[in-house]
């Protein structure tokens, strides 16, 4: 609710949390990236956050690409994400 308020998506953090608790939705919020707008009411915002219908992106990695080429591909689509991928690809415990 703090982030939603800071971005102007809800006007009152406390009332938003209270509404979510009363509607028993606090544990139903799904992780993801959502398309929200400032003209939505708090109930609409909560409905979207609990729907699980997050924004998805398509990425095709051509056959034979190595991790350096994938890094460049990702960085061209989303700044910094290729660097994140590259770091994880070299993280032995993550790879395992």
What can you see in these coordinates?
The chain is mostly helical and 96 residues long. Helices cover 51% and strands 0% of the residues. It has helices spanning 2-6, 13-22, 42-51, 67-77, 81-89, 92-95. The chain is elongated and about 50 Å long. The protein starts with a helix and ends with a helix.
What characteristic shape results from the CA principal axes? elongated
Order of helices and strands: HHHHHH
Based on secondary structure, the structural category is mainly alpha
Overall pLDDT: 94
Task: Please give the radius of gyration in angstroms.
Answer: 18 Å
Low-confidence stretches: none
Biggest sheet features: none
Head-to-tail CA distance between termini: 35 Å
Q: Could you name the key traits of this structure?
A:
6 helices; elongated; single chain
What topology does this entry show?
Elements: H1 2-6, H2 13-22, H3 42-51, H4 67-77, H5 81-89, H6 92-95
Concise description?
The protein is mostly helical.
């Amino acid at each position: 609710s703090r982030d939603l308020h800071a971005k102007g998506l809800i006007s009152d953090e406390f009332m938003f949390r209270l509404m979510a608790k009363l509607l028993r939705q606090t544990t139903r919020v799904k992780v993801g990236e959502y398309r929200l707008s400032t003209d939505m009411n708090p109930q609409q915002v909560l409905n979207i956050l609990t729907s699980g219908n997050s924004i998805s992106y398509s990425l095709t990695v051509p056959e034979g690409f190595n991790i350096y080429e994938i890094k460049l591909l990702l960085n061209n689509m989303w700044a910094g994400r290729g660097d994140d991928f590259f770091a994880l690809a070299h993280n032995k415990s993550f790879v395992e």
